[in-house]
Amino acid sequence: MIEKVKPVVEYTYEVNNQKYTGSTISIEDRTLKVNSESKTFPWPDFTLNQKCTVYINPANPSDTVLVNKILPYRISHYAALTITGVLLMLIGIGLRYV
Predict the structure, then answer these.
(1) Among 15, 33, 45, 54, which is disulfide-ready with 4 (CB 3.0 to 4.6 Å)?
(2) How far apart are CA 63 and CA 30, in angstroms?
(3) What is the Cα–Cα distance from 12 to 43, expressed in whole angstroms?
(4) What is the reported pTM?
(5) CA distance linking residue 11 with residue 18, whole number of Å
């Protein structure tokens, strides 16, 4: 059986002299899983005690991610959903005039 895997990370950061701990990798964190037999993984390689950029929500400093963009392998998913939505909308508009 092929298992779905994703890395577990924990990072610390400081905002206005207050320390925080985060564990969210990406805005797609809940769906960021791949087959355990995969040869490549969509997330960056992290190492222990590595310094990295943490993207912080200014309105809520405890809301953070390490990757703040859609991962390249997911762009086709979002494009397909967008195109499908537009087509359904056009079909709906067209049906009003039949």
Answers:
(1) 33
(2) 15
(3) 19
(4) 0.60
(5) 14
Query: How many whole angstroms separate alpha carbon 7 and alpha carbon 37?
Result: 14
Q: Is 75 helix (H, G, I), strand (E, B) or coil?
A: helix
Query: pLDDT of the chain along its 98 residues, tens only?
Result: 556 667 788 999 999 999 999 998 887 765 566 655 666 666 677 788 889 899 999 999 999 998 887 766 667 777 888 889 999 998 888 888 76
Q: What is the DSSP letter of 27?
A: T
Contact status, residue 56 vs residue 24, Cβ threshold 8 Å: no
Domain span including residue 33: 4-69
Asked whether the CA dihedral 21, 50, 65, 19 is positive or negative, the reply is: positive
Contact (CB, 8 A) for 68 and 55: yes
The enclosing H or E element of 4 equals strand 4-5
**For residues 63 and 13, what is the distance between their CA atoms, to the nearest angstrom?**
11
Residue reference for tokens 């207050």 = 18
